Amino acid sequence: MVNTSLSTSVEIKDHNIDHTSIPLQAPGLPQIQIKWLDSGKPVLEGLEEKAINVSLSHDDYVCMCVAGYGLQGCDIAPIIRRTQQEWIALLSSAREPLMQQLLRINDSLDQAGIRIWAAVEAVRKATNALDIDLVITQTKEDCVLFQEVFSGGKFQVLTFPIRLTRGSQRMVALVVQNT
Hints:
Largest sheet: 5 strands, antiparallel
Number of helices: 3
Distance between the termini: 42 Å
Number of strands: 12
Oligomer: single chain
Shape: globular
Radius of gyration: 17 Å
Helix content: 10-25%
């Protein structure tokens, strides 16, 4: 059993997630269900005419969901310790210059590594892209905005660390609209 700060609990069995349809009820709306495609991507059934998309992310303790018009992508991941060699092996040596840039703007090694990981995951969930190239476009305090150019479209990913009531610090990544 994992207790959350909202005094509810969920049971995690062998860390497998049950991808059974989840009915959602809301007054004045048709019955809505979250279903999963074979790829693992969640979709909202019952709101097709509204063109609302959804993205989910979870770890052993928390779940995050974003929904809205257009492509959606999110990721939440605990900030854990790894050596520089481990981060480079995980992220690829092509992303080492981006990691070095984040280190120069005051990220710790682990913040930089998981920030890149979460941003890539959020873009991947939104676009299904495999080859993702990120550049930093803006920083403010502990927030970093990345840009990814994919098939002629431009995607931005906002990343920031959070500390929840329980558990370790996590990095959040959200695909955001260009305005």
